[in-house]
Amino acid sequence: MEAVNPDFEPLRTTAVTIGTEAAELVQRLRGGPGGFHGEVDTKSTETDVVTAADKASERLIRSRLAQLRPGEAILGEEGGADPGAGRLLWVVDPIDGTVNYLYGLPWYAVSIAAQLDGVSVAAAVVEPASGRVWSAVRGGGATLDGTPLRASATTRLELSLVGTGYAYAVERRARQADVSAALARHTRDLRRTGSAALDLCAVAAGWLDAYYEHGLGHWDWAGGSLIAEEAGALVRLPDGTEDGLGGDITLAAAPGIAVDLAEALRAAGAAKI
């Protein structure tokens, strides 16, 4: 494991502190069980939703980062990018899993990551419904509520539980479903939970043996991918790498199945999504 940069630990502390505050706001705005009753808008399609709570959470995060880390750049899902003077970039997803949040399914999270030159160096993913806090610092490991995490030790893809997700656009979702159907023949089972950040954390905990998804936004993977990587998972980010998987696929897997999973995805036509 690479040495921990002492400058990174305060970044994790900041991410945890602000992520926890935002999660408390998100849960308070949600209210009790049942559907969300606040303002709901749509983005790319009628099924791609954003709530008033998403916007309020991002406003809080931006305000607190301006107080605690003044002058640093911020990239948020709802508010776009605020340029900063330095190399550090805060990548913010105010609610990852907004559809789950809308329906009351408690698998959604606030994700905050600090990146240097495009590489995540500290992160926190906080679950409003449960209060669980996932975090990591580059070179320093990953934890869930302070307990160290370790990815699965499985070596057999056919006995592995694999998570995935789908696009909001119907035609692309149909192609993704075809890939999933092909992959299902080579795994124990597939899961689709609706939060990329938490699926990546689940790989870190060994709750999933692997996870892959096409078309994630920067904010979707910035925090969870570091947590998975620091727990020992092999992580492939959507950087256009010419490896036969296509340019926009994110993948995190137990080291013992990573090669086999990539090959199964290539054979299933993942590059054509």
From TrEMBL:
Mg(2+) 1 binds at residues 77, 95-96. It catalyses: a myo-inositol phosphate + H2O = myo-inositol + phosphate. It is an enzyme of class 3 (hydrolase). Keywords: Hydrolase, Magnesium, Metal-binding. GO terms for molecular function: inositol monophosphate 1-phosphatase activity; metal ion binding. SUPFAM superfamilies: Carbohydrate phosphatase. InterPro entries: IMPase (IPR033942), Inositol_monoP_metal-BS (IPR020583), Inositol_monophosphatase-like (IPR000760), Inositol_monophosphatase_CS (IPR020550). Its EC number is 3.1.3.25. Its cofactor is Mg(2+). One of its GO terms (biological process) is inositol metabolic process. It holds the Pfam family Inositol_P. Mg(2+) 2 binds at residues 93, 220. Belongs to the inositol monophosphatase superfamily. This is Inositol-1-monophosphatase.
